[in-house]
Write a structure and sequence with these properties.
The complex is a heterodimer of chains A (489) and B (78). The longest helix of chain A is centred in the N-terminal third of the chain and has 46 residues. The termini of chain A are far apart. Helices cover 16% and strands 46% of the residues of chain A. Chain A is α+β, with helices and mostly antiparallel strands. Chain B has 78 residues and is mainly α. The longest helix of chain B is centred in the middle third of the chain and has 25 residues. Classes of the chains: A alpha+beta (489), B mainly alpha (78). Chains A and B meet through β24 and α4 of A and β1, α1 and α2 of B.
Chain lengths: 489, 78
């Protein structure tokens, strides 16, 4: 018994010692933790903008009608800090930042009917990533925002490859259902006082959507919000499962060769690798069922593609490895031409088609002379097929022989390199400017320019080459006539 | 753009290409014929190298330009 008491006494005596050690250890831990927290907080406040802004109202409209997602974000930003702010930061989750094809911002001036938009510069921010790898983009304001001032900004961005087909494989007679992952709360480095998100789906058939109160569905619109007083970097993941049978046309690679000839023609040759990027097709393909019941069979497939070409286009051809494809219609007009093409077979999920489209344009529509004597080509950059995503576009501009110092003016970032190509009547070869870009959407169909120097006398090189060949033939004939090869004198 | 955009087109109008091709090739072949007739009709003593070379040069110029316009008229924009 007294052994037990002795044991208990020793334990009791041990306990204060343990408590002391634990207390010291715990206090050390809390000190370290608070130090880290302080460092993190101070570093995070350093990594965000030098002045803290507050977003008064934010409205986000997400359009999920096509497989290219377009989002319009309207922010009303107020400056609460002492120093004026010249940049506004936007945050995107890493998955969205990877698939961001285009981002544009504009300052909204005036109200309602008299609204005018002034475009602003948007680029990737130098700041460190936000929590969980959120990527930051920085909008440069036209005039620095003074203390207490507010500004309305409209940001529009385009996301690609963000709709996952679910089920992944469907048969011919099934409809295509896709998943969209996002957040009910707008991810932002600043606090948002009031925010709303509206998602528009192409049809009323929405299988399910995550409910984050208050969220409502009205026919094709899902409304998340309004949410009040959300802290910075708040994120609430949601999942929307809905039907989308619009064509998921994706061009895996587009190689476009633009050949300039100063004798009056611009020849464009485009090599396409087209794929249906939606839910993969499983099972067999019954042509009878496909043609007899078009409303039930093959609703997620597409047959026709619309190619928008410049006006005054001539010599248009549409062919592939086998030969000419005759299922096409060309409608020329004053402002544009439309070529409606139909591949040899309808495209179901996962099916591919490769083809070549070529056309010619008169030179005076595309080649101009600038004030400083340089010539420049004015042509559109993106893919001419409507509502198509291009994974990789390679534009090769073949300049005539004798061109020097090529330079480019493109409104967005592209990769550039130079090559030489040999064509008819070439001695030294033609310089080729190759422009490559990935993740190209129809919004990239803007004009770009390629400037180069060309002396008009260089055009004479071609006829002089032909003349010299004929002259060589005449000289050879003369030499033969004047040569005496008779054996007998 | 602030700069004036002056469209550039070919130094020779497009519509003239087929006519120019036929005309120049015809003249070139005519001079070629005259060159070979001179070769055939003159004897070794009377031949003048200068006249032969000039005829050959003129014929090759016309044939060269004619064949260029023939290529352009048939759609091979060199």
């Amino acid at each position: 018994m007294h052994i037990f008491f002795r044991r208990l006494g020793s334990i009791l005596r041990e306990k204060p010692r343990l408590n002391m050690e634990v207390f010291v250890a715990r206090s050390r831990l809390t000190l370290i933790f608070s130090l880290f927290a302080l460092l993190f907080l101070s570093s995070s406040s350093l990594s965000s903008s030098t002045s803290e802004l507050q977003i008064l109202t934010a409205e986000r409209r997400i359009d999920l009608a096509s497989h290219i997602i377009r989002v319009v974000l309207t922010l009303k930003v107020q400056n609460d800090e002492a120093s004026p702010a010249s940049n506004v930061l936007l945050a995107f989750p890493p998955a969205q930042a990877k698939h961001l094809a285009l981002i544009q911002a504009a300052e909204v001036a005036g109200k309602k009917r008299k609204k005018s938009l002034h475009p602003l510069d948007v680029k990737q921010s130098n700041h460190a990533d936000g929590p969980n790898g959120a990527k930051l983009y920085s909008i440069s304001l036209r005039n620095p925002l003074s203390t207490g001032g507010s500004v309305s900004i409209e940001v529009s961005y385009v996301l690609t490859q963000s709709l996952e087909p679910f089920p992944v494989e469907i048969s011919q007679s099934e409809s295509q259902l896709v998943l969209y992952r996002d957040s009910a709360l707008i991810l932002s480095p600043y606090e948002i006082k009031q925010q709303t998100t509206v998602i528009r789906t192409p049809s009323t058939k929405i299988e399910s959507f995550t409910r984050v109160e208050p969220s409502t569905q009205l026919r094709t619109e899902l409304k998340y919000g309004p949410y009040e007083d959300q802290p910075s970097f708040s994120y609430s993941p949601i999942l929307v499962h809905f039907e989308n049978n619009n064509p998921f046309a994706v061009v895996e690679e587009l190689v476009r060769e633009i050949e300039i000839s100063h004798w009056g023609n611009l020849q464009v040759t485009e090599h396409y690798t087209l794929v249906h990027n939606g839910a993969r097709h499983k099972g067999g393909f019954s042509r009878v069922e496909y043609q007899s019941r078009p409303t039930i069979s093959g609703v997620a497939s597409f047959k026709h593609l619309l190619v928008k070409l410049p006006p005054r286009v001539h010599s248009v051809y549409y062919r592939d490895n086998i030969g000419n494809i005759s299922t096409s219609h060309l409608r020329t007009g004053y402002s544009k031409s439309e070529l409606e093409i139909e591949p040899r077979y309808p495209l179901l999920g996962g099916w591919k088609a490769t083809f070549i489209i070529g056309y010619g344009l008169p030179l005076e529509d595309v080649l101009f002379e600038s004030d400083d004597g340089k010539r420049y080509l004015n042509f559109s950059f993106g893919c001419p097929i409507a509502e198509t995503l291009v994974n990789k576009i390679i534009n090769k501009v073949v300049l005539p022989e004798g061109s020097k110092n090529p330079s480019i003016v493109v409104p967005f970032s592209v990769e550039r390199r130079e090559e030489t190509s040999y064509s008819y009547l070439d001695i030294v070869g033609r310089p080729v400017v190759v422009l490559e870009k990935e993740n190209v959407v129809p919004e990239h169909n803007v004009l770009f320019q390629v400037y180069y120097d060309f002396h008009p006398m260089s055009m004479l090189a071609e006829p002089l080459m032909l003349t010299s060949v004929f002259f060589f033939l005449f000289v050879a004939a003369l030499a033969y006539i004047h040569m005496d090869i008779s054996i007998r004198k | 753009m602030a700069q004036s955009a002056k469209p550039i087109s070919s130094p020779v109008p497009d519509a003239w290409y087929p006519s120019l091709a036929v005309l120049m090739l015809a003249v070139g072949l005519f001079i070629t014929a005259s060159f070979f007739i001179y070769e055939a009709t003159s004897s070794r003593k009377n031949r003048s190298l200068a006249k032969e070379l000039v005829t050959g040069a003129a014929a090759s110029v016309f044939l060269g330009f004619g064949s260029l316009f023939l290529l352009l008229a048939s759609g091979v924009y060199v």
